[in-house]
Design goal:
This protein has 151 residues and is mainly α. The chain has one domain. 86% of the residues lie in helices and 0% in strands. The protein is built from 5 helices and no strands. Helix 1 packs antiparallel against helix 3, helix 1 runs antiparallel to helix 4 and helix 2 packs antiparallel against helix 3. The two termini are 37 Å apart.
Length: 151
Amino acid sequence: MADQTTVDPPRAGKNLGRNVSSFAHDLVTLFELQFRLLAVDLRDASQSAGLASGLVVVGILAALGTIPLVFVTLALALVEFAHWSQTAAFALVSVIGLATGAVLAFVGWKKLLAAGTTLGRSKAEVVQTLQWIKESLRPKEEYESSFTRRF
């Protein structure tokens, strides 16, 4: 037993404590950064979602209400200047109103869907952080064997 190395138990405990403390500090820092990124992503998403929601509402109102005064005036102009029947003039103006509303609602809906993709950065960062934590908590023997397999 003369060639065995002696380990000073109090010192080993201090090293372990320092390593655990350092790891915990890194984890807290990572989570703090994750929450900051999430806050920025949510702010950006809410700004673009507000505009998209407004476009959807305006599109639906235009399709349902067809902005009565403008469309009635256009229909009456077709009757007076183009000599159309009232039925044909009002039918054409109604189709124009519905098409306008549908286009505005479609554009607004696409913008609303695009606003949700802003959160992709936060999701990707959380996945990377969890992978790092798993790698850090893996037993040393497992880590070394996977490291040698990669290189």
